[in-house]
Amino acid sequence: MGYTSENLAEIAIDTPQTLAEPSVRIKNLDLNFGSVKVLQNLNLDVGKGEFLVLLGSSGCGKSTLLNCIAGLLDVSGGQIFINGKNVTWSEPSERGIGMVFQSYALYPQMTVEGNLSFGLKNARIPKEEIAKRVARAAEILQIEPLLKRKPSALSGGQRQRVAIGRALVRDVDVFLFDEPLSNLDAKLRADLRVEIKRLHNQLDNTMIYVTHDQVEAMTLADRIAIMKGGKIQQLAAPGEIYNRPVNKYVAGFIGSPSMNFLQGNIQTGDTDVFLSGDVSIPLAGYAFDGLGRSPGKAWLGIRPEHILTGAEAEAAPFNTQAVIEIVEPMGSDTLVWTQLAGERIRIRMDGQSDVREGDTITIGFHAERVSLFDEATENRI
């Protein structure tokens, strides 16, 4: 379980021992580029052996945060602890981290073996130890047959394995990944995603992984930190973020296709309902958050895969008729566009669904599947 900005702020900045020591602890971190605030009072704990993913759109600050942890950027304020040691102003080589970059950054004139051993030789590690570490990394990453090749003779996936291996041979407790799969095609990304998951399960080292790809985040992470504007919007397990997003931004960011939203009003009484246009959606069964139920303007969100059709929709507490506008066959799924309360929405149906544009279908859903957000703050209700 992580700690929020609020309760971390209560912990004295010079007494990290007040809590069980995490693998990486970031306290009140600020980073400014001139007058531009990139990271703002950011607090984050990463547990030992945890796989944490920093997720967000371009410019949200996720790679910047990773570079601060690695020591590649000087922070403007706050502190960074790795394994209990204050490394805020330490050199990257002194932080006990291994980093894998988006670009492979391999030495083209060296063999795979040379690339893996180069940093160890510079650190004056004994030859026997170097050979042992290189052999172990090659075995784990299944690149033993490639050791005598040069990078030009490798595929993109093989080069990325070598880049991971170069971090692996350092034998550190914390690994940092900066969008390592973004330069690969879809199949290679899927294959290497599995390899990284297997690697973490095998090593049980702490890993912090930056990506803008939510599939990578959902499949790899123990916890996900969703970032926006240099701040963490939500820090939780993938299932928690998917099912109970803390605000409208997180709800819309997670999920592909993204969540459908209806604008309207919550009306409370003997029966709580959400009113949007001429549509009245019963809210019986919805789990209101800590703020409790209260009337007012709100957004209702429902994921495309949670909208029922046909007989299942007819049995749901809310159902209505809808005309199909667009059908997008996607193989395993069929994505259907229609309208509800004057808003265009998407429905994920079975790939074998026999539907066509112009068909009228019954759609519906259960209140347990929706998310409600205050219109003004956009926070979960």
Automatic annotation (TrEMBL):
Chain ranges of the ABC transporter domain: 24-254
Assigned EC number: 3.6.3.20
GO cellular component: ATP-binding cassette (ABC) transporter complex, substrate-binding subunit-containing
Broad EC category: hydrolase
Entry superkingdom: Bacteria
Database matches in InterPro entries: AAA+_ATPase, ABC_transporter-like_ATP-bd, ABC_transporter-like_CS, ABC_transpr_MalK-like, ABC_transpr_MalK/UgpC-like, Mo/tungstate-bd_C_term_dom, NA-bd_OB-fold, P-loop_NTPase
Keywords: ATP-binding, Hydrolase, Nucleotide-binding, Transport
A Gene Ontology BP annotation from the UniProt entry: carbohydrate transport
Sample GO molecular function, one term: ATP binding
Family listed: Belongs to the ABC transporter superfamily.
Protein name in the entry: sn-glycerol-3-phosphate import ATP-binding protein UgpC
Organism: Pseudoruegeria aquimaris
Classification lineage: Bacteria, Pseudomonadati, Pseudomonadota, Alphaproteobacteria, Rhodobacterales
Gene designation per UniProt: ugpC_8
